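User: Okay, second chain of the day. Same drill as before: sequence in, structure tokens out.
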Amino acid sequence: MLENSKGNGEEFINEVATIGRIHHFNIVRLLGFCSEGTRRALLYEFMPNGSLEKFIFSKISESTHRLLSWEKLQTIAIGVARGIEYLPQGCNQRILHFDIKPHNILLDHNLCPKISDFGLAKLCSKDQSIISMTAARGTPGYTAPELFSRNFGEVSYKSDIFSYGMMLLEMVGCRKNIDLSIENQSQIYFPEWIYNKVSQGKEFALEIEADGDEEIAKKLSIVALWCIQWNPTERPSMPIVIQMLEGDIESLEMPPKPFVSSDAEMDTM
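Assistant: Same drill. Structure tokens below.
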């Protein structure tokens, strides 16, 4: 159900018409809609496993074990990346989601990821690469810096790539990218803690259990750090992201530090 719907519904119908044309394995399928006065609703396919959020931020019976294996996390990361890759080019209009986060990634019965919730999405023509925005949109912690200030660069599909990078880091750490409940203040900004671990060649110790887990954790982290570069032009395109995720860890280069470093000590967690 959509609350606080405004206007005569023409914009809503146009968006439904566009989203209704999306047919991609990693994007939730729109089955129908209702527009009756100010009452509007969207009907999507049912995703029995709910959102990715509950798998990476929740613990079963206070268990310290992950609910998803590292191999499954990598598969999910690649699936979401393929969906994001499709949005700007798969339809007759370019679609920017502007709210990529674990809560909006739904999982089917096979834990296949599908991007959902296009409430903040913006539609534009195929030849429009730079987007005009009157106000920032998105969820704090995932919103690209250029949405707040053009001093960081222009708004484009690279804004969704920033959000994707923040989500990847949360998948690695099973925690919010900014967590004020963490006792050790040096661990509050998780992206910086991850960057220091990777750049110093230290092990993550993030519940690594099987052979290859450490490599997957490091790969996801490096790709994420590339995606959250503050300058949009320094973020890789989504095809490159997919290539990095599917490639060998040896082929990945360490990105520049994507934030202003704090003075906090990052050696322990």
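Residues 172 and 217 are 6 Å apart (CA to CA).

User: Thanks, on to the next one.
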